[in-house]
Write a structure and sequence with these properties.
Elements (H helix, E strand, L loop, with lengths): L3 H7 L6 E2 L2 E2 L1 E2 L10 H13 L10 H21 L7 E4 L2 H16 L5 E5 L8 H10 L2 E5 L9 H6 L5 E7 L11 H10 L4 E4 L3 H4 L4 H4 L3 E5 L10 E5 L1 H6 L10 E4 L4 E3 L13 H17 L1 H20 L5 E3 L8 E5 L6 H10 L2 E2 L1 E3 L4 H7 L4 E5 L6 H18 L1
Helix pairs in contact: 2-11, 3-11, 4-5, 12-15, 13-15
The chain binds pyridoxal-5'-phosphate.
GO molecular function, one term: cysteine desulfurase activity
Cofactor: pyridoxal 5'-phosphate
Family: Belongs to the class-V pyridoxal-phosphate-dependent aminotransferase family. Csd subfamily.
Length: 406
């Protein structure tokens, strides 16, 4: 069980007030808050241990390189990946998916080839594939979720045809909280020879992830949702796919030799890490992942599942609130509207007056908004440090908004 009091004390921002009220931070789906150990690691790195990595022979450069490179192993451990050379460090999921689109998919797809996507993907897992549609005539095939927001893995597998070259699917919806059985998708896709990219941006913070067990080809994560700094992240790329992939960006660090006439590349994963990286951000991410593993991913998941059930029960008890996505197999992420009464932005403004931070908008999920028939929702997204008292604070603030607008 989580020691929630201790965990909350580890996150300094949680003790502040907003608009004269204790902060109830429920915008974790957008970005999570940072524990003191991460803040301290960033300060220490800049105050005492900073230099560029990989290229100096002096003490500080070696120290920074050692700390930076150790994070590759930490990420591999966090994701259940046996070989850390399959982890490419980057600035986050957006960069990771773009790397796959430019470096792996573009050179091997032609007009008429297909990419299968679920309707609940984030724009980071849509727009790079639109580039291939616009530039190369690749066809995007969409798989719907059901009325509860669940995605049937069989429907994804049924969409595979002779021209399917990739399945790109989220592990957990940033809007509905739906968990996707990506293992079943990968098993079925492997039998048909179709690689699978999993967007793990939301899943990795809410539940234990074992990428080797999932059996995907690509698994993208983003540091700032994992209690780490923004500008940090990584993508797991299976070694067979690494061998097939072209570098997406060229520059320092990713090369072995450069002359006027030729270039030879470093071995993967360095081949895909051009330029000076987010050194301190990545070091901070390593500390954030160690923090999560110390707390325990199973305990985090159990705490959040309990929060999710409680929040689901309380939110669906408000008969004037339209809660989107009611599948029981979901993380503590809730999207809702007050149909005909108030716009999502107005609701979030009232909530903010009560110190409750939620997000309002399309959540970078245009196709899902179309599927749900809405232009915007309010989203309350929970993290390991949230409590049932904070669910109650959300409900109180929603009742106030309903009294004002309803
Ligand atoms: N995928 C999902 C499911 C997300 O929720 C997000 C961020 O909101 C992203 C991708 C993009 O992550 P980033 O902006 O950190 O690259």
């Amino acid at each position: 069980m989580l020691d929630i009091k201790k965990i909350r004390a580890d996150f300094p921002i949680l003790s502040r007030e907003v608009n004269g009220k204790p902060l109830v931070y429920l915008d974790n789906g957008a970005s999570a808050q940072k524990p003191q150990v991460v803040i301290d690691a960033i300060t220490t790195a800049y105050s005492h241990e900073y230099a560029n990595v990989h290229r100096g022979l002096h003490y500080l450069s070696n120290l920074a390189t050692e700390k930076y490179e150790a994070v590759r192993g930490t990420i591999a451990r966090f994701l259940g990946v046996a070989d850390e050379n399959q982890i490419v460090l980057n600035s986050g999921t957006t960069e990771g998916i773009n790397m796959v689109a430019y470096g792996w998919a573009m050179p091997r797809m032609e007009a008429g080839d297909e990419i299968i996507l679920s309707v609940m993907e984030h724009h980071a897992n849509i727009v790079p594939w639109h580039f291939l549609r616009e530039r190369q005539g690749v066809v995007l095939k969409w798989v719907d979720v059901d009325a509860t927001g669940a995605l049937d893995p069989q429907k994804v597998l049924d969409a595979i045809g002779p021209k399917t070259k990739l399945i790109a699917v989220t592990h957990l919806s940033n809007v509905l909280g739906t968990k996707v059985d990506v293992k079943a998708i990968c098993e079925g896709a492997r039998a048909k020879g179709v690689p699978v990219l999993v967007d793990g941006s939301q899943a990795a913070v809410h539940m234990p992830v074992n990428v080797d067990e999932i059996g995907c080809d690509f698994y993208a994560i983003t540091g700032h949702k994992l209690y780490g700094p923004s500008g940090s992240g990584a993508i797991f790329v299976k070694s067979e796919r690494l061998a097939e992939m072209r570098p997406f960006m060229g520059g320092g660090d990713m090369i072995r030799e450069v002359s006027k006439d030729a270039v030879t590349y470093n071995d993967p994963p360095m081949k895909f890490e051009a330029g000076t990286p987010g050194i301190v951000q990545t070091i901070g991410l390593g500390v954030a992942l160690e923090y999560m593993m110390d707390v325990g991913m199973h305990d985090i998941a159990a705490h959040e599942d309990a929060l999710s059930s409680y929040a689901q029960q309380r939110l669906t008890g408000l008969n004037w609130l339209n809660v989107q996505g009611t599948t029981p197999d979901k993380a503590a992420i809730f999207s809702f509207t007050m149909d005909g009464a108030a716009h999502a932005h107005d609701i979030s403004t009232i909530l903010d007056k009560k110190g409750v931070a939620v997000r309002a908008g399309h959540h970078c999920a245009g196709p899902l908004m179309d599927h749900l028939g809405v232009t915007a929702t309010c989203r309350a997204s929970f993290a390991m440090y949230n409590t049932t008292d904070e669910v109650d604070a959300l409900i109180d603030a929603l009742e106030l908004a309903h009294d004002l607008f309803g």
